[in-house]
Every structure is written in structure tokens, then in C-alpha cells.
Amino acid sequence: MPSTRSSLTAERLLVLGVSVLLVTTLFAGPAYAQSDERSAPSVDTSRYGTRCVQPSVMETPTARRGATPPASVPVVNETDDRRVPLGDVAAVPLSVPAGANVSVSVGADRTDSTALAIRDDGDGQVVLVVNTYLAAHAGTDAGTYRVRGNDTVTVTNWSRAPLQPGDYAVRATQTGTAVAERSLRVTTPEIGGITVQRAAPQVFESATVADVRAANRSGLLRSGTESHSIPTVTEGETAVLRIDAPSIVGAVAAANGTTTDRVLSLRADDIELEIFGPCGGILLRESATERGSVRALVDAGNGTLYLLLDTARLEGVLAAEQTLDLEIEETSVIANRDVEAEQSFEVADASLSVDGVRAETVDVQAGNWTTISGRTAIMPGSRFGISLVSRQDPTVSRRATATVHANGTFQTTLDTRSLSSPGLYDLTVFHRQYRSGAGDPPSIWWDAHPGYRGETTTTVYLDDVSLPKGGFLVAYEYDETRDAFHPVGTATEMDDFELPRTVDDHVLVVAHRDGDDDGRFDGPVTDPAYRLSGHPVQAWTATVESVSTPVPNVSFAGPESAVDGRSTSTATVTESPTAVTRTPNTPTAAVRTTDSSTGAVTTGDRQTGATGVGFGPVVTLLALVVAALLARRR
């Protein structure tokens, strides 16, 4: 028979063991893996042209790609040109006494002239800039006359007569004595032609006309008519549309915003710049504001405008023939008749292929370097990105850059030595997404494509859905303030997502089994996630084509401690699977831990049950056992 001391020792050990289990049950939770790398949203260009754009459901532009432009953006780089066509911008140099205040008359030899007061900054050199487009309207726009540098100008008397073709004396006087005089010659309006060139994708990043010229000297611009009857640009290249029209430079300079804003604001009463094509064709303004895929540059010295189009990311329909049309109405001050310049072009398929595609999948060599190679019709010298993003942990990604060789081939390597196997991955090769896998992963897959936001819902399209044991795809929003995921919509293999209108720009799609076979999603405990190598199968997707926010750098681990769908927790999830409203029983702020072997930081949410305030049935049972043991000791 055991002694009383031995019995008490055994009881203490039992109490200690149960207490540890109680604490573990209270505070243990799932984790959201963190990483320094973030997967970039990919765009499925193969879908462009398959569906006409619905302007009635388009979003209001929110942001542009790239750096924020400075508050004051110079529009033109005027040369000292005193002979310009009507509508252009002229620069008239005047030598005046250093630091003097002078009076300048534009049209001094005419009965009705414009009087200006100019103060020199001390160098004795004044350059008067005249916007002949505004002057032709005989208005009082402040942008009609300005000066370069630190000089200042004020209009003291406006001419009532509109500026017309002819010679105008520009005279500077000081206390009634002439100190400088030049002649400004305004000729009849000039609207030339339009040319189309194809350029490497990286040419789209050109910030100035000088950058475009440098790219041309490097062989990165080519004629768009090399082998086609009309100019043709390959999808993914930069379309360079050159517009020789000096007489619209003044209209561009008169507008507000960046150079791109100013050029695209030419949809005025007298000047219209559009692209026409099937189903509305390429939408210039929507492409610029919603996708950042249109950039405009102005070469005022040559009276030339450039439109750069990133053909992989344009809004609208690229199929068939597109026509860039510049039309000047007969009533315009820069035309005495209807003037139109137009040029048609086509966007050809990139014919992009990747080597080693087997059963629609590209193999990844986990534990080694992976070579990605292929062929494309994109012009030689083009550079584009290649990325590999994990579908078990989307914070894990690998990236590289490939260059197209003279024979149309490309090749690069990705460092996949530390990736898990078996594994599922998204391989994106220059805006085109491929299924990728390491080892022999199960056939769990889906492709998600941004749809459109309607009055009450947001549609996200699903293709190629494969859930081997049935179940659902569940869309989760990530709440950064609470470090928690919340389900906002479900879909089966036959559905698309219909999400709340107010859904975030990105949602995380997770594959779930139907754990209780009731045909509905009952939460991630009852219907656990499909898992691979211990991680839920998941992927971020944009909810609309216009994306202005980055992909959250988090991954989903699920509120249940489960492996391969076998749940070991009896806690329940009480939030509605489609509700966005945050309830007291939703996951709360995460607990962060560090993996001692890898240094990776993970966060796990604390999940409360439905049977008590923060306590599930297991916790309650353990508490009763501890109480009983303590009572026995007494």
C-alpha cells in the first residue's frame, strides 16, 4: 500500500500536469507566418479582350503606380523659339538691365497690345514664355504669359484682340526708354501625323523624352511595321505613339497636373484625343488613372507628344485593330476647318511559352536551383520579371529578371533550395501565371481573377477549381488592426465569388474541406483547410483590376490545431462565414513567437469558444478536474 507522502506527491504531479495542460489550452493558438518578402499581385493578361468593359461599374481612380509626382511639374522644355505655329508655346529672350523693373509690350507695333511688368532677378536675362493657344482665346488666363527662372511677371493690361498668325513686336522699356526688342512670328497652325513604334517593356519607365531617345539609340525601339501591313506591337511591349502636333502643345501646357494628366485632358470642346477599337477599344484615361499603364511626355522644342502604353496592363479591349485619333474641331482657334490625324495599330499576342510545362504545371526543383526558360515574340533586349509565390505560405517568394535574346528565348534561375516539397506555387512569367509544384503535390488548385464592383457586391471570377475531396473556397479579409482573418465569402467548384461591396482590395482565398458534409461552410474548425506540408493551401487575389494597396505580408494558419484536416480541437467558431461585422468571438490580437531554428516570426490568434466567456468545454473540464484534486487533498 503506497504511503501518504507518496500519494500526495503523485497528486501534486497530477495537479501540475493538468495545470500545464490547462495553461497550454488557454494560450496556444495558430500562427500567421511572417517573412520579409511579399508576393506582388499578378495580372492575367490572357483575359483582356474576352469581355467588354462595363463603364457603369468602373471604380473612381484612387492612385497611380510609381512615385508621387512633385507638386510643380514642368510641362515643356521651350527652346528660345520666336517662330511658332499658332497653338504652340514660344520663348522670347530679352536682355534688360540687371535687376531692373521693365515694362514689356507684346504687339507693341499694334493698336491693341498686352502690357506686362517684369522684374529681373539680377542676371539681366529674361525669357518671356507665351502660350499662343491661350493668347488666341483673348482671355485672362494666368498661364498665357510667364517667365523662366526667378524673374517675375504681372499682366497690367490684357489685349482684347485674340492672337492670330502674324508678326508681333515684343518691346521692353525702362522709364519710357526701350532697352530690348524682339519679334515673335506666329504662323498658321500645324497638326502633323502619328507614328507607332514598338519598344521593350522597360522603355515604359522613361521619365523624359531624352530617355526615349537613349532607348532608341540602344536598339530598344523598333518600327511597328517590320512584318505587318499596319504597325503592330507585341503584347507586353511598350507602344510608343508619337504625335507631331505643335499646335496642341499650348493646350497641354494650359492644363493642370502631371504631363500625363495634361495630355489626357485634351478631351476638351475643341481638341479630342482618343483610341477607338472593338468594345470601346483601349481606354486611355482609365488605363492611366486605374492601372498606371499610360505615360505622356512632351518635346515642346519639336512640337511632339509621346504616349507610352504598357500593353500588358491596359484597360479595355486590345483585340483587333485600334486607332489613335486626334481631332481638332472646326471651331477651334487652332483650326479653320476640321483637322484630324489618326493612325491604326494592332497588339499581337506575345506567344509566350515556358519550357517544361507538364500537365499544365511547371516543376520546381526544391532543394536546388530552378531554371525557368522559354520563348516569346517580345522584342530582343526586353527585360521582365519572373516570380514564384508559395500557396502554403504566400509570404514566401522568389524573384528574378529575364532578358529576351536575339532568337526570342529567355532563361533565368530561381533560388528554390529552401522551398518545401511537396509544395504548390504560383509561377508568374511576365504577367502570365502558371501552376507550379515541387515533389508530387495533390491536385488542389484554382485561378482567381478580379472582376468588378457593382452597387452591392464585388465579383471575383474563379477558373480551373480542383478540390479532390470537395468542399469550398473561402475568401478572408485581413484585419491589420487586430491581426486577424475574417471570412467574407464562399464558393464551390462551380461558383464565382460574390463578395460584399466594401471588401478590401485583396482577399486571401483558402481551400476548405466540407468536414460535416452538410454542403455549407461552417467555419475553419468544422470545415478544416486543405493542408500541404502542414500549411493551409491559400493564395492572395485582388478583388478589382485597379489595385492601389500592397498585398498584406501575412499568411493564414487557421484557428484550429489540425493537420491534414483532422481537427484536435472542440472549440467552435461563431462568426457568420459571410459577415464582415466584427463580433466578440472573432479572433483577437495575435500572440507573436520566434522559431529558434529559423528565426522566423509567427503570430497566432486567440480563439474563444461559444460556451463561455473565453472558455471552451475542454478548458471547463480541465478546471473541474483540478478543483476535484485540490478538494481531495483537503
Automatic annotation (TrEMBL):
InterPro entries reported for this sequence: PGF_CTERM
Name assigned to this protein: PGF-CTERM archaeal protein-sorting signal domain-containing protein
Composition-biased stretches (Polar residues): 566-605
Membrane-crossing residue ranges in chain numbering: 612-631
Region described as Disordered: spans on this chain: 559-605
Keyword Membrane: yes
Sequence ranges assigned to domain PGF-CTERM archaeal protein-sorting signal in this UniProt record: 614-634
Keywords from the named record: Membrane, Signal, Transmembrane, Transmembrane helix
A Pfam family that the UniProt record links to this protein: PGF-CTERM
